[in-house]
Amino acid sequence: MSLLRNIATGLRSLVRRNKVNRELDEELSAYLEMAAVEKMKLGMSRKEALRAVRLEQGTPELTREVVRSGSWESVVENCWRDLRFAARMLRKAPGFTAVAVLTLALGIGANTAIFSLLNAVMLKTIPVSRPAQLVILRWSAHSRPQNLGTSSYGDCLWVPGAIQSCSFSFPMYKALLAHTDTFSSVLAMADAGQLDLSGNGPASMVGGELVSGNYFEALGVSSALGRTIRPSDDRAGAPAVVVLNFGYWQRAFGGAADVIARTVRLNGSPFTIAGVIDPRFTRLTPGKSHDLWIPLSQAASVRPSWNEQRRHVDEPTNWWLAIIGRLKPEVSLAQAQAATNLAFRNEALHGANPVFKDADDPQVALLPAQKGLVGIRQYYDQPIYILSAAVAIILVIVCANLAALLLARATAREKEMAVRLALGAGKGQIIQQLLTESLLLSFAGAALGILFADWSAQALAAFISRNAYSTLFIDTRPDARVLAFAVVVTLLTGILFGLAPAFRGSRINVGPALKDSYGGSTAAPKATGRRIGLGSCLVVAQVALSVVVLVGAGLLVRTLTNLRKVNPGFDTHNVLLFGINPTLAGYKVETIQTLYRELQARFASVPGVISATYSSDTLLSDGLWTSEVHIEGQPKDSTIRTDMLAVGPEFFETMRLPLVGGRTFSNSDLQSERAVAVVNRTFAQRFLGGKNPLGVRLGGTTPSDNKIEREIVGIVGDAKYDNLRKSVEPTAYVPLQEGAAYFAIRTSTQAEALVPTVRQIVASFDENLPLFKVTTQTETIDRLLFNERLVAQLSSVFGGLALVLACVGLYGLLSYEVARRTREIGIRTALGAQRREIFRLVLRQGLTLTIFGAVVGITAAIGVTRYLGSLLYGVAATDPLTFVTIALTLLTVALLAGYIPSRRAMRVDPMVALRYE
Amino acid sequence: MPDKPSDLVQGTLDMLILKTLSLQPMHGYGISVRIEQISKDVFRPNAGSLFLAIQRLERDGLIDGEWKPTENNRRARYYTLTAKGRKRLDTETREWGRQAAAIARILEAL
Q1: How many domains does chain A have?
Q2: ipTM associated with this complex
Q3: How far is B107 from chain A (nearest CA, A)?
Q4: What is the pTM of this model?
């Protein structure tokens, strides 16, 4: 009660300050008047009485101050007064203010931008209701059953070598559904694979997800238009429905409201559009998105390959579903874990169709969904951490820079502070005043920086999205966490760079400062000595920190250049790439072959095209197919693991992969029953020990493959397959017989220019055959090197920024020194010092600081760069060349920064300098 | 010449003001004079600390202020004890009595 009343009265007195002040004055003067009247009764004259009262009580002004200081609102008022004063002081020095605010905007803005990105990629919670209750199931086992087919879908963290997965069979899902005492709901999802969507203009390739009927309901995700998928949609025989992602609906349907009830065909099957999902939900995995969702019951109709392979959705060995459970509020994770594990083992070991044996010891773990669904985090966490470190260092440099600026200013304002101290200001008040100034600067910088941060975070997110093959959803809109981060960083920054100058300001020796006629030049030499010490330390710190950022940037740039210089073994220039998947459009194996051959011929006949081919995957796009193969003449049942790529005619010619021996595939190889293979040089060397590989036969290991015996007919040069960092593995090329294909068209000019022609040609064959992943070979390399490019480019920018800041700091310090020592220099010159000596005197100081800073920085960098470790390529974390280059660059720039003040020192006219006295 | 006025024990001025107002509503100067008279010039609060205490008590809701004309046709703020103030005075008086008696006992014992 009384607290509320206190606040209310305080607010009233803040808002109606004049009235409250007047009332207090009136009350006080009434008091004094009454006291005077009392004294007059004792026989004093009025004048005497008033004087006596004043002597007893002190002046009314002082009394008023005492009374007012007792209320909390006076603290607010003092702050407000300090703030207004600070604003006035900053307005008086527009140059200083502009430089300070801009530097701070850069520092705070860069940090906020990178934090927004970090927040969007790693911290933002899944946009569903009560996400903390969601768990994803992951099984692990000692050994993996031979006939088990699992899916990599589900965005579980992939651990090399571990036998674990987040995919489960349909019967297992049913068994877990029965566990209603642990979970309030159990939902399943699976990748719908590539979907050929027709019925909405030209056919296009989209990505979708198969979800159980309770998916949206259990997640608490609603629709923006129409409805979501309901449990009734997920029953056998229910009409096929599809719901759209909001962003996809905007892109592909122009946000038209009449999409509801329209029919589209997905891989040939008709689906009715039932709704558009809330824009905040794009996929359960943070950062990723799906274009559309369809009920699980439609799995068979959109996966033609399953029908061909006679794999059924409810087969016990077909593990294709990711399972998410929503824990009941009263059930703990440990309880749920125990209960689920029991149910899982029961079904997997003793169910109707046991998949595992007791010795496999299968176990299931429940992972919190936020942590378990790693999503894009796993690709971008390292670059984001590196960039965070770089911007944090930049901010510290900014602080050091501003602290030095303020220190120089504090010297100029010594007199002002001395006057205040002499007039009775407390040290605390001076510190408060100066800190208010630095905080005001800091917040002004932050206000500007946040605008810049918002813009650049969006640009960064767009840059990242553009480089991914599937649509990403990186929501960098600032939330409470980003704002809190910005405020805390701003406060800390303001205090960090303001603290030293503030304390310096409060420690002024009033007497000498006021007597001194000229700035601070003859102030107590001891104090001056200390000040230079601090200023120099700040410059050394700036130089050292910028060395750390620059060395990091240098190593990352060298990594990128090294990767760019890697010879992939084939010619990457002027190659257009795109994929088509005729299976999804209803083609059968035999017709696919003909289609590919005809398309290839048509492409090859286009003017400007040198040759055309196709393969099961594009090179250097992170896709890899490996297989176990038996080699003729080696111990029975022994196998080797080799990379495999299925290719069409003229593949080696088009990619310019040199033939070393034997022959490449001829048209007859692709049709005949006689299976052939071409291997690379590493294959021949590693597995055949230099023996002539031509004529050697390869056999498969799986029952279906065993019948195929491939004869090696040719050897080609080594070429990188999935990425540039890995050394070339043994690779076997085989003729492409079925499935999707990526065409590669070598042109004599710009490859991109051919895209419209190619689309036209494909459409002339079949309108429902969409092109996907349309790109060029050089672009695939760019995407492959995306993280490297991201960190190399951004850290170079940050390195440059750090260098500029450090040089400005050095320049500022030297200029200030020259100005302060004008008289000393004048005396030296008058006494016969050569101008060259004066020039060297100043330059030497700058160089000493720089060298000292560089040494400290290099030592620190050696300790820090090893954290870049796995990102580097072809360069050691302590690469001497990088370190020397950075050191030399820094010295050159420091010389430039020191040149101007040194020249100014040299030009000091002794007459003018001494006349200052 | 009377003794120099003593400094008040920390926090007792509040209690004295409450006690003074328990008899009748008074303005600031009246409170000051009354404390001076009753304490026989031992306590003579100055205007600063007096009004500081009054401001505090009013904000805590222990007293209420109201502008009223004075005898010599000026305006002054008259303060009244609230019910809450009366309760506070009672507890503080009791507590003070206990403490004073205890201190007296200690001083006598030594």
Answers
A1: 4
A2: 0.84
A3: 34
A4: 0.81
